[in-house]
Amino acid sequence: MSSDIDKINGTLVRNRCPQSALSVLTGISSPRLSRILKGGEVLLPQDATLLLDTLDEMDRLAKDVTPRVPIDWSQTLVLKEILAERKRPKVFQVKFGGGSFAGLDSKGKPMAKDEGLVLSGEVAHKLCETLRSMGYDGVRAERVEYREPVVNDFLVAWKQ
Predict the structure, then answer these.
(1) What is the distance between the alpha carbons of residues 135 and 140, in angstroms, rounded to a whole number?
(2) Which of 72, 129, 136, 145 is the most core-located residue (most Cβ within 10 A)?
(3) What is the pTM assigned to this prediction?
(4) What is the pLDDT of residues 28-54, one digit of tens each?
């Protein structure tokens, strides 16, 4: 586990992130995290996984920031929400005909409404292809904020 502790400490230094910020982002109390990182308390496997996964996500976030500027890791509430958002699946609505795909009408034709179905990327892509093959113009998938329910199956989406 000392290699995990070395990796954790190294990542904190590299990202100029204080232990207190990592404590807030992971939910591990600051005194306990300090003891773990100084070797005064055993790093449990589940804590190692949580800490290393959080640090990996912090590394990805730091690399994605353009232009490359240091992140102010003391803004833990904002960062906690950003990290949570990055873990959520990307979801889409398919736009066409002045609205979003909301299923089929009673005659089996695609309906466009203000609020359409929330779809996984794969389903949105297949739905776009299908609508284009039927002659619909301006068909596109737009990313939307994650919300339930998400349709992950094309046939379920098509028969809504």
Answers:
(1) 13
(2) 136
(3) 0.58
(4) 999 999 999 999 999 999 999 999 999
